[in-house]
Design goal:
Elements: E1 9-11, H1 25-33, H2 37-57, H3 77-88, H4 93-107, E2 110-114, H5 121-130, H6 140-143, E3 148-152, H7 158-171, E4 182-188, H8 194-211, H9 217-220, E5 222-226, H10 231-238, E6 247-248, H11 262-270, H12 275-291, H13 298-311, E7 317-322, H14 328-342, E8 350-355, H15 364-369, E9 374-381, H16 409-426, E10 431-436, H17 441-462, H18 473-485, H19 491-500
Parallel strand pairs: 2-3, 2-4, 4-5, 5-6, 7-8, 7-9, 9-10
Antiparallel strand pairs: 1-10
Helix pairs in contact: 2-13, 2-17, 3-12, 4-11, 5-11, 5-14, 12-17, 13-17, 14-17
This protein binds 5-phosphoarabinonic acid.
């Protein structure tokens, strides 16, 4: 596939303190809150060593205890997935993803995706970034065969799930009509996550009620995505699903690094996204990370300067300021990636996703004048997808906008972007720009792979294992103990409630 030049860039010049000719209050602030060129320069040797280490970790079969857990499989996976599809076609994992997504697209109008954490946030980020903002509201003709997509199983909110099932009950009455059929994708690598497992029970019960307990649709329209072994695979098999209809998350890919496994690819294909372009973008980023020098390597640049900001300048807050509301969920996906990967041993930056300009009217004040504990990474989109909306001339000019009549929303956004960063620079508030040429699958593939690689590099720089999330176990353990200790509902009441569903 021939792709235009759509490489993403990281520009961090504003994080570097300009040489001070004489003492000024601003120069003093800059010396304190920005980096020196020398400091970045001095990192380069260490970065090269870490890059070599991360590259070598891909090949380790039996990692030493100090490196465990090690789940570096995500690094080569995009290229491997493309290669395997080229060689094996339908029999490859991507071939299976495309076949099962086609089945759901052809036979349903709604699909609910169940999963939490790394088994949810990537797919949600892809949906929000790459689908129409009002995808689920669009008439079927405009959706062109793509089902509406819902996300559940990412909390234990009784009423949210009840209301989704209520929607299905009212919108989907006749299972004979394809436009009223719905399906589900259940994603859990371990198969043992309470939030997802509980939602799956409720969703399956609802599907059974709708299609009938013997209906083949229960097997056709319910697709599990899970690890090579575990409770969800056992359950799916027990429910009569052939192994070919169960998608696999490789053992050596951790949850929050799994967006380019069927965890993200199946929902993406159901949404009608170009999954190959996603993978091509991700594979290109891996290649760039492994081969390019620092000056052309956004992974190394981002990891280095953010590491220095956190570890040496005490900027423990890391704001991802997304200048497109379509990217907010990419920010939430990164929140989890950073938190679970580096929030260990009483260290690790705290991620904060802000949508600009929206949050300039809430967090903006704090970012401009509050505690000096943050670095801001702007996520900027160079080119809007749609025709610019021009302000235009109006008969009434009480709002005084006629002076801008030949300006369009992208011009306003550009002025807001430049004005904001100028204001931050004048107060020595550190900002850098992650620049996307546009929003499409190829670009988002690059971006997500870049942030995953940068997180691993940062972990290795600070001596923190970026894989595993031991801290998450504490709440799970307590929740199970408490659940076991509290009395169950009386039998009759359970039966009544199930009947009601
Ligand atoms: O990054 C991770 O590994 C976690 O966030 C998991 O994705 C999350 O806990 C869900 O786990 P599972 O897919 O096993 O249900």
């Amino acid at each position: 596939m021939q792709l235009p030049d759509e490489t993403i860039e990281y520009q961090y010049a504003r994080l570097i303190a300009p040489p001070a000719e004489s003492w000024t209050p601003l120069a003093e602030l800059q010396a304190k809150h920005l980096l020196s060129d020398d400091r970045v320069e001095a990192m380069k040797a260490k970065l090269n060593t870490v890059r070599g280490q991360v590259a070598a970790e891909r090949e380790l079969q039996n990692p030493p205890p100090r490196l465990q857990p090690l789940q570096a499989g995500f690094i080569n996976l995009p290229q491997q997935t493309l290669d395997s599809y080229r060689r094996k076609g339908d029999a490859s994992e991507l071939g299976k993803v495309l076949r099962l997504s086609q089945r759901l697209k052809e036979n349903t109008d709604r699909v609910v995706v169940l999963g939490i954490g790394g088994s949810y946030l990537g797919a949600k980020a892809l949906f929000d970034a790459l689908c129409h903002t009002y995808h689920n509201e669009l008439p079927a003709k405009m959706r062109m065969g793509k089902p509406r997509v819902y996300f559940e199983g990412n909390n234990v909110d009784n009423d949210a799930l009840a209301e989704l099932l209520e929607l299905f009950e009212n919108a989907c009455v006749d299972p004979e009509l394809p436009e009223e059929r719905w399906g589900a994708v259940v994603i859990s690598k371990s198969g043992g996550t309470m939030e997802t497992a509980a939602a799956y029970r409720a969703v399956r019960a609802e599907m059974t009620k709708f299609y009938g307990p013997k209906s083949d649709w229960l097997k056709q329209l319910l697709v599990p995505v899970t690890g090579p072994k575990g409770k969800l695979r056992d359950l799916a098999r027990a429910e009569g699903l052939p192994d070919d209809d169960i998608l696999t998350i490789p053992d050596d890919v951790g949850g929050r690094y799994s967006v380019f496994t069927p965890v993200g690819l199946l929902p993406a294909a159901i949404m009608g996204l170009d999954v190959r372009a996603l993978l091509i973008g991700a594979a290109a980023m891996t290649k760039r990370f492994l081969e390019e020098p620092f000056d052309r390597n956004p992974v190394l640049q981002y990891a280095a300067v953010n590491h220095l900001m956190t570890e040496e300048l005490g900027k423990t807050g890391r704001v991802m300021a997304v200048w497109s509301r379509k990217l907010e969920s990419v920010g939430f996906w990164y929140d989890q990636l950073l938190s679970e990967s580096l929030g260990k041993n009483n260290r690790g930056a705290t991620p904060i996703t802000s949508v600009y300009t929206r949050d300039l009217h809430s967090r903006g004040q704090q970012h401009q004048e509050g505690t000096r504990d943050k670095v801001i990474n702007n996520l900027v989109v160079r080119q809007a997808k749609h025709q610019p909306i021009v302000l235009g001339m109006s008969d009434r000019n009480e709002d005084e906008l006629n002076q801008f009549s030949r300006k369009a929303l992208p011009d306003v956004l550009d002025a807001a972007f430049k004005g904001t960063n100028q204001a931050y620079a004048e107060a020595a508030r550190p900002t850098a720009d992650l620049i996307l040429p546009g929003i499409n699958e190829h670009v988002i593939g690059q971006l997500m792979q870049m942030l995953m690689l940068a997180t691993v590099v940062e972990g290795r720089l600070m001596g923190t294992n970026p894989y595993g999330q031991p801290g998450v176990e504490a709440y799970k353990k307590n929740m199970m103990t408490l659940l076991k200790a509290t009395p169950n509902l009386p039998k009759g009441e359970v039966a009544d409630q199930l009947k009601g569903r």
